[in-house]
Amino acid sequence: MRKKTMSISSWVLFFLCCALLGKAQSAESDHSKIGLMDKGKHRFLLIFAPDSQNEFLLEQDKMLRQAHLGLSERDLLVVQVVENNVEINPHVKEEMPPAASLRQTYKINPAQFAVILVGKDGTEKYRAAHAQAPAVLFDIIDSMPMRQHEKRSE
């Protein structure tokens, strides 16, 4: 009788572990949906805007254009999600999911502006609801252990 009880509890434990493992793999596949196929090579600055005339988007674009050297020095790709369009600057062969999928992944309302910094490890490092000065973003990146390692290796 005891053997049977252990067997049932072993099965329960087995199914519980499988369920937890399935959730972890599902979360990992959701994470990979953001399209960061080259995890480890680039950081991403995701810019979400409701339309191309959004004042925060225009301000952010202007600031980033003036900081293009700092962006490339830090391996930072800019991904703009405007309306239903997704655009990567500079243009690289990087597949990104559709705008709706990115908004869902990062919990961004289509009517909202947001700036999200994603590290080389694929995790979100910073989020703001308005345009961010490149110096602020660069300070955050430069304080990251991976960036400090890169600077020592240069």
Ordered list of secondary-structure elements with their pairings:
Blueprint: H1 2-32, E1 43-49, H2 55-65, H3 68-73, E2 76-82, E3 85-89, H4 99-106, E4 114-118, E5 124-128, H5 134-142, H6 145-153
Commentary on this structure:
- This protein is of the alpha+beta class and 154 residues long.
- It has helices at 2-32, 55-65, 68-73, 99-106, 134-142, 145-153, and strands spanning 43-49, 76-82, 85-89, 114-118, 124-128.
- It has two domains: 1-32; 43-153, 3-Layer(aba) Sandwich (Glutaredoxin).
- The protein has a five-stranded mixed sheet.
- A hairpin with a 5-residue loop joins strand 4 and strand 5 (124-128).
- Residues 9-33 have low confidence and may be disordered.
Task: Throw out a few tags for this protein.
154 residues, alpha+beta, Glutaredoxin, 2 domains, five-stranded mixed beta sheet, 5 strands, 48% helix, globular
Write a short abstract of this structure.
By secondary structure, this protein is of the alpha+beta class. It has helices spanning 2-32, 55-65, 68-73, 99-106, 134-142, 145-153; strands spanning 43-49, 76-82, 85-89, 114-118, 124-128.
